[in-house]
Amino acid sequence: FLDEVDALAGFLREHWGREHVLVTDRRVLDRQHRDEGRGRYDAMLAWHGDEVVGVLGFIAASRFDPVLAGVRDTLWLTTWRARDDAPPGTGLALVRALQREVPHGWMGTVGLRASAVPLYRGLGFRVGELERWVIVDPDATPRLLAREGAAAVPMARLGPGEGARPLVAVGADDLRDPVLVRRLDATGTVPARTAAHTVGRFLADPFFRYRVHLAEGDGRVALLVSRVVRHADAAALRLVAVVGDFLALAGTGPALLALLRADGAEHAELQVAGAGDAPAAAGLHRVDGVEGLVVPERYDPFEPAGSPLRYALRGPEGPVLVTRGDADQDRPNRPVPPVPSP
């Protein structure tokens, strides 16, 4: 409940990390977990007497679009921890309670540790890694990317090319168009996503300025969500999420190159699972296919090297599409001011 937030924050402070942004900045905690419509924080608390001995935080997709409530909902697990002196089985009891009490179709997480992989597999989750893809401006001097040895940075091709498709900037009003809403809904990717969820999750974010671009072609449609990330005097374009049919992005490489150039970015990077070879058709290169290429993982704070994010997902079968923006991997890691108005 909303009045239990101090108990939630207190547990996170003592057992998750005193310097964690969910503890040091209540606005970030509220953005991630406060569900005003349902009058609750999206977190399960395990009590032993009058003490909280375990927490399971989650992000319900339906908080950003009520249409997803019920069997189309996804519960993205974020903070899962039981005290060392908690009764045996407290952590699993929290998961079972969430499964029982909050209707949903899928449950998942992004960013799990290697040590947690057997646990998730034992609970029936499919586990994998988000593949890393990159497109680089051939005229930019790489300052964020690194090359080990004689590795060559994979450069984007210039020119529009045959079959090139544009990326059209769209706003919240555009994403309320009923025809577009139906077309996105019909793609059937797992977990379920909607145009309204894109508005609530990204365009309404109080900390980051996300942008959404529309790609269409061959009867397919997709939304590409991005934001600019910076370190020192260099910038990159983070492709945070894809909504719809990824194959609609085929041929958008030249448009993507123009977009990152307009932002003064040296490269654009994407982390995704379930897209197959479709990112290559959009002009991107698989990072692990270029020996010695190192792409930063974090910009807040900056980490010059990174590894793929692991994900876990359980629910009805379908064409899986998971990105770093689906859970809590693209939120502030330190207190930040709200995003200024456009």
Structure characterization notes:
With 342 residues, the chain is of the alpha+beta class. Helix content is 21%, strand content 30%. It contains nine helices and 20 strands. It has helices spanning 5-15, 21-24, 26-33, 90-101, 117-122, 178-185, 195-203, 253-262, 278-281, and strands at residues 34-35, 40-41, 43-48, 51-60, 74-82, 106-110, 126-129, 131-136, 146-147, 168-170, 211-217, 220-231, 234-244, 267-273, 285-286, 293-294, 298-299, 302-303, 310-314, 322-323. Strands 8, 10, 11, 12, 13, 14, 15 and 20 form an eight-stranded mixed beta sheet that branches. It has a six-stranded mixed beta sheet with strand order 3-4-5-6-19-7. It has a two-stranded antiparallel sheet with strand order 1-2. β11 (211-217) and β12 form a beta hairpin. It is globular, with a radius of gyration of 20 Å. The model has no long low-confidence stretch (mean pLDDT 92).
User: Oligomeric form of this entry?
Assistant: single chain
Strand content: 25-35%
| Overall 3D shape | globular
Helix content: 10-25%
Q: What is the structural class?
A: alpha+beta
Overall pLDDT level: 92
Number of helices: 9
> How many β strands by DSSP?
20
| Series of H and E elements | HHHEEEEEHEHEEEEHHEEEHEHEEEEEE
Rg, please?
20 Å
Distance between the termini: 34 Å
Query: Biggest sheet, open or closed, and with what strands and sense?
Result: 8 strands, mixed
- Poorly predicted runs are none
